[in-house]
Design brief:
Helices cover about 40% and strands about 15% of the residues. It is an alpha/beta fold and about 425 residues long. It folds into 2 domains: about 10-245 and about 360-420, 3-Layer(aba) Sandwich (Rossmann fold); about 245-355, Dihydrodipicolinate Reductase, domain 2, CATH 3.30.360.10. The strands form 2 sheets. The protein has a 7-stranded parallel beta sheet, sandwiched between helices.
Length: about 425
């Protein structure tokens, strides 16, 4: 069956809560690609390809030629931030993209001025800004965001919008009664419930408006029953959470390999240093707790210790993140993995990954925006588990454990795209030893 997918006609507006390092790196990259002075390296939708049919058919189109994605030349950007800096100033402050390149993009970047943000320092202790909305209730704030969205769409003549959360990690929070139903959430918004965070207000405003929403931080944001209920009601695709970039990306590559070879694991120690705004936020223990929970989940899911307790039931998994201002956005991670093999003999793996956090995150933001827009035009709504490939802590349907194995995630992503286009799913079974019908 081939889905009836609306063509991506007109402009696509990408709205970004948080015009910091990640958002401005992505925006700068898109402008550079448009001008022909950069390549969208790391972007699945722009650089990736997909196999169709049998290997002998040699059909391997680019993703962007296979499914009807919005063209990057039809994208416009907007967003909110607690600081008044335009995208050029914010990108200069972030220090990710070279100033020489930013100056070539200055007219386009300077035109992107952040709208006043919804912000509450109770949820992000180590930041404070002046470009902030004020209103009597959280519902009033949500309605103000909805008005921002409508004005942006009219002003920029957009036919469609998506929203991707690129702002800071909020303090750790577990689901409460207010998150269990849409009625409870809306009552909580009207009554300023203390357990409704700013990211939840953005998610509510987007989904209430029928705008696809992705959560790039480990906050709950849209990962709770009330928002899922709203997404189904408004037939809106949602996904999260926490962009899978540096250390966790490598974990979801290496751990499946160890499991595939039935090698045991005693311990996995991970530590990081970074000095950007994200590092400053995570220097607060309550925000770090949110990130820690997100990063811890991958190994137990991949190794499935309940299925092979001899190999994985006693893994000691420790994570540390340290704020180190001199490093800026150039995050460095170290992993020590204690493994054991034949007859229980011990071995070790050491990994030192010197990465650029926003450089790795930027293409994910673009891919999620384009694929969520595709999902909306294909009539898909609710949790988009096929986008788990892009997240550290993927949102999954109630009662189902998320998939963390990067290769299983990729297979699910690509088979979903094949399914959308009426192509046969690829199992890699082959069966060359059977005579084909």
């Amino acid at each position: 069956m081939e889905f009836q997918i609306e063509e991506p006609q007109g402009k696509l507006g990408i709205l970004l809560p948080g015009l910091g390092a990640v958002a401005t790196t992505m925006i700068s990259g898109v402008f550079a690609v448009k001008k022909g002075i950069g390549l969208p390296i790391g972007s699945y939708t722009q650089m990736g390809s997909i196999r169709l049919g049998k290997r002998t058919e040699n059909r391997i189109p680019k993703i962007k030629d296979f499914v009807p994605l919005a063209d990057i030349n039809d994208i416009v950007f907007g967003g909110w931030d607690i600081f008044e800096d335009n995208a050029y100033e914010a990108a200069c402050n972030a220090g990710v993209i070279d100033r020489q390149l930013l100056d070539k993009l200055k007219p386009e970047l300077s035109a992107i001025v952040p709208m006043k943000a919804v912000f509450d320092r109770k949820f992000v202790h180590n930041l404070n800004g002046t470009n902030v909305k004020s209103a009597p209730t959280k519902m009033d704030l949500a309605e103000a965001l909805i008005e921002d969205i409508e004005q942006f769409k009219r002003k920029n003549n957009c036919s469609r919008l998506v929203m991707v959360w690129c702002a800071s990690t909020e303090v750790y929070m577990q689901e409460k009664e207010v998150h269990q139903s849409l009625a409870a959430l809306e009552e909580g918004l009207r009554n300023n419930h203390p357990d409704i965070a700013p990211s939840m207000i953005y998610a509510y405003a987007a989904v209430k408006s029928g705008i696809p929403y992705a959560n790039g931080a480990p906050n709950l944001s849209c990962d709770y029953p009330a928002l899922v209920e709203l997404a189904k009601q408004t037939r809106t695709p949602i996904g999260g959470k926490d962009f899978k970039t540096g250390q966790t990306l490598l974990k979801t590559v290496i751990a499946p390999g160890l499991k595939a070879r039935n090698l045991g694991v005693d311990g996995w120690f991970s530590t990081n240093i970074l000095g950007n705004r994200d590092g400053e936020v995570l220097d607060d223990p309550e925000s770090f707790k949110t990130k820690e929970v997100s990063k811890l989940g991958s190994l137990s899911n991949i190794f499935e210790p309940e299925l092979n307790p001899d190999l994985y039931s006693s893994i000691y998994h420790k994570i540390r993140i340290n704020y180190y201002p001199p490093r800026g956005d150039n995050k460095e991670s170290w992993d020590n993995i204690d493994i054991f093999g034949w007859l229980g003999y011990r071995m070790q793996i050491k990994i030192n990954f010197l990465c650029r956090d926003s450089i790795l995150a930027a293409p994910i933001v673009l891919d999620l925006a384009l694929l969520l827009d595709l999902a909306k035009r294909a009539g898909m709504y609710g949790i988009q588990e096929w986008l788990s490939f892009f997240f550290k802590s993927p949102q999954s349907a109630p009662g189902l454990a998320p998939i963390h194995d990067l290769f299983r995630q990729l297979m699910k992503l690509e088979n979903t795209l094949r399914h959308l286009q009426g192509e046969n799913l690829i199992t890699h079974l082959g069966l060359d030893y059977y005579e084909e019908e």
